[in-house]
Amino acid sequence: MLLSGKKGLIVGVANKRSIAWAIAQACQDNGARLAFSYQNERLGENVKELTAELSGALNFQMDVTDDAQVKTGFEFLEKEFGQLDFLVHAVAYAPRQALEGDFVSTSREDFRVALDVSAYSLPVLAHAAKPLMKEGGSIVTLSYLGAERVMPNYNVMGVAKAALESSVRYLASDLGQLGIRVNALSAGPIKTLASSGIGGFSTILDHHRSKAPLRKLVELEEVADGALFLLCPMGRGVTGQTIYVDGGYNIMAI
Ligand code: NAD
User: Fold this and answer.
1) pTM for the full model?
2) Residue of 144, 170, 244, 249 marked active site
3) Best exposed site among 120, 136, 190, 192 by fewest CB in 10 Å?
């Protein structure tokens, strides 16, 4: 019961294979009360169905690129929860054509969209969450090794993840004095809705399975446990970090 009595917002559940859903289950199992935001009505149906079994869960629509929806969403959260203890940011998107072929051909618009949804949304949500984190808090976002190394076809999403990881450090510096910690969890590759948009993703999975020190793909539950550590008091001394839950893949040169 590592999160007993804590209230958290989970942003980024699309379906039962979402990393955010695995994290939500770990939080729920550890005593947290949860709110879920969904991107649009269509995904909202999935979220409502999944969360129906959770006691006291809240749901609301919040497209992270829409300032009005973010404002309304957090007003709703303040009314219902009064306070927020943690926030899980598991959101990313880039237009499909930007996730195949050369990075050098990325259009201005595709670059803008990828960075807006996948990186700028973190400071936006941290800003909205700050007044609700009255007794401090923990914010965790999801990143990927493509932030630092070149992954085939990951392209502009790698640039967005680099901006995301840098945002984690700046936010950690801003919010630390309020007792709010901000960290990124860099997960190994997992088959999800978002990753299915990356060209040649099955090759990345095969390479990971054969080269990672643990010689297997990372499991959703392993990522969820890593997030739980950062969200709960066990991670109280950790902020501004990118922590890898990738079976050690990131240490390998070839
Ligand atoms: P997913 O498709 O289940 O989740 C992505 C979520 O982003 C979806 O819920 C989608 O609705 C949401 N989203 C996209 N645009 C949005 C917007 N404008 N407003 C609100 N929400 C929006 O896939 P996932 O793999 O679970 O992705 C979650 C996070 O994990 C992402 O940041 C992803 O980059 C990261 N990640 C994934 C992997 C992987 O291999 N799957 C590895 C490392 C990191």
Assistant:
1) 0.98
2) 144
3) 136
Q: Which residues line ligand 1 (CB under 6 A)?
A: 12-14, 18-20, 39, 43, 63-65, 90-93, 117, 142-144, 187, 189-190, 192-195
Ligand 1 atom having least distance to the Cα of 15? 3
E strands in the chain: 7-11, 33-38, 58-61, 86-89, 137-143, 180-187, 242-245
Provide the 3-class DSSP secondary structure of residue 211. Answer: helix
For 217-231, the pLDDT digits (tens) are 999 999 999 999 999
Give the ligand 1 atom nearest the CA of 193. Answer: 2
HSE of 70 in the Cβ direction (CA atoms, 13 Å)? 16
pLDDT digit string, tens, across residues 133-189: 999 999 999 999 999 999 999 999 999 999 999 999 999 999 999 999 999 999 999
> How far, in Å, CA of 181 to CA of 176, rounded?
6
How crowded is residue 40: how many other Cβ atoms within 10 Å of its Cβ?
10
Query: Closest by alpha carbon to 227, among 47, 83, 18?
Result: 18
Side chain identity at residue 173, one-letter code:
S
Ligand 1 binding pocket mutation candidate from 122, 144, 192 (most atoms within 8 A of CB): 192
Q: Which atom belonging to ligand 1 lies closest to the Cα atom of 64?
A: 19
Query: What is the sign, positive or negative, of the torsion defined by CA atoms of 72, 73, 78, 79?
Result: positive
